[in-house]
Prior knowledge:
heterodimer, A: mainly beta, CATH 2.40.50.840, 2 domains, five-stranded mixed β-barrel, 6% helix, 36% strand, globular, B: alpha/beta, Peroxisomal Thiolase, Chain A, domain 1, five-stranded mixed sheet, four-stranded mixed sheet, 14 helices, 16% strand
Amino acid sequence: MVDKPLSLKSSRTLQITYNLPISRTSKFWEGLKEGKVYATTCQKCGVLHFPPVADCGECGSSEVEWTKLDGEGEIVTFTQVFVKPASFSKEPPYIVAVAQLKEGIKALAWLTGIKREKVKAGMKVKLVAKVFSDKVAYEFVPL
Amino acid sequence: MGHSRFGDRSDVNLSELSFEAINPALQSADLTAKEIPYMSLGSMGVWSEEPLPAVVIAEYCGLTGAGLVRCEAACASGSAAAFNAYSAVRSGQMDTALVVGAEKMRQIDMPTVMEMIGRAGYYMWEFENFGMTFPAYYAIHAVQHMEKYGTTEEDLALVAVKSHKYGAMNPRAHLQHEITVEKALASSMVAWPLKLYDCCPITDGAAAVVLASEAKVKELGVEDPVWIEAIGVSSDTANISKRETYVGLEASVKASKMAYNIAGILPKDVDVANVHDCFTIAEIMAYEDLGFCKKGKGAKMVREGETEVGGRIPVNVDGGLKAKGHPIGTTGVSMLAELTKQLREEVKPKSRQAPMKNYVALAHNTGGTGHYGYVTILRR
């Protein structure tokens, strides 16, 4: 073993950007632009899926319909991320929560507009669409 | 079996690191590389430069020509490789097989490591917009466990103190220093309420074990074989939001039940265990998920020293992922190497040798945030 390890820097570098196919769930992403959050409901077995899916893994049917979520729910659990991934390094520490929605499904998203010290399991929140200049997403806000 | 020193191993490349484990493993089995017909590698490998690590390692270690595969089950890749090799031997296809775990995680910067691991939750739905990290995933479990069962941040710190105590006795461990509860509680926040000392380090390391059929064991005249009695496997949803609760990992419950059934044993028969403590809360949940105690009583086990050497069931007395380190694809193989030593009562110093009654050991290896569950039962 050497005292100070020697290494070469790889001279070939990669910068990867993936194209994320959303053709079959485009209504979800379009909906967010209009301020709506959609899930999908299987027309055969009736299961409500969130995140939305084009095919139902529960029964194998590809007949799914879009269901607009009211978005009201209660916090199940949460955290606040201090040590962040490289691509989130410019964000202040963010709160991520899982909430049970009254439609009977859970969702994971950032919880904004509240300090972590005030967040409690059982707290009422609403899942809302969020439009940025370059993308769309969704988040929880306190009710 | 063979086991490299874990830690910041910037002094070696992936192949050289693997050689440190593979060569002693072959020597201990009295086999040469040319006699190995099949090698199964556990490795995630996104942090080191070789996209096909199995062939690179095989060539370096003289295994070219053997059947090769790299298995991916995230942090349980080592157990997946063991299952793959075990199946090859058990089916009669192979008389021997080499299981290798090898991971070099420290060749890229830390924020990028956090990025690569965080993306491995569910990129599309939990990373792209929400930047989930692995500490964050386990933090949401800690929050619910604390709320439901009264587990405290001090309890989590006690797990870290125990891991560091045994890590300090293990010359192969990444972190070989003892810590105090105060030091753990005062460490910097990573993902509230988990702090630095609740998290395993980013580690380089390799481990290897040779598997052989009963006939081959006889032919080789292996004096003190340790047998794989069972490997239980299971999985859970990719989306964490689709889980029923956040107080345990269902994949661990299901994989352990399968393993106990196949081996025909009960949790109380286990003399020593290595559980997947990537975070302190994960060790407490593992006690419960594996049936070492009732749901919600995991913290009590650590408070009362039940999982120390001399306790009811010693757990992670090699330092665990927390102090020994967690080279992702290596961990499952490292557990098998450690437990083989435990079963043979060869652990040094003796202060971290678990007393043997039934000569039964259990390895619990989780991939992702409970995405993959593997439980292996060994017997001597």
